Amino acid sequence: MKPSKIFYPWKNICKNLLNMLEQLDETELDFAPFPGSWPVGKIFLHIAESEDYWIHYLARKEIPENPHYELKDYPSISAIRMKLRVTEERTQSFLEPLKEEDLEWIFKTPRGESLTLYQILWHVLEHEMLHSGEISLILGMLGHKV
């Protein structure tokens, strides 16, 4: 089966993330649900950061260094939206031409683990679903309709 079909939910997850981002007001980007937790704006950036790290830095070697996206560098909803969209477009353009056998490509992590592209892609997709749930909970805490 074509990888773009296997990972078809990705587009919808990205769309939902952007919809959740649009519910926020600029002043809420710094909201942290408990002391020591990341602010909600950083969680959105962490999603893009992780996707860029695993797929576009580690696997594709398209990004020259391990990405670190900080809220101070993306301080607005429009800046975070742009970062999420650029990352999504990069990932979708990578997934589209892949063939099933490409999922067997093996990559070494900095910790010495050997992971297939299939494992990396599932890891990133599950990571985004996890943080989507976290953001949904935070939106509810802020009084937004989830």
Question: Mean pLDDT across all residues, rounded?
Answer: 96
Helix content: 55-70%
| Proportion in β-strands | under 5%
Order of helices and strands: HHHHEEH
Instruction: Provide the low-confidence segments as ranges.
Output: none
Rounded to the nearest angstrom, the distance between the terminal CA atoms is 34 Å
What does this 3D model show about the protein?
By secondary structure, the protein is mainly α. The protein is 57% helix and 4% strand. It has five helices and two strands. It has a two-stranded antiparallel sheet. A hairpin with a 5-residue loop joins strand 1 (106-108) and strand 2 (114-116). The longest helix has 25 residues, at 117-141. It starts with a helix and ends in a 5-residue tail after the last helix. The mean pLDDT is 96.
Outline the secondary-structure elements:
Layout: H1 3-6, H2 9-23, H3 40-59, H4 77-95, E1 106-108, E2 114-116, H5 117-141
Antiparallel strand pairs: 1-2
Helix pairs in contact: 2-4, 2-5, 3-4, 3-5
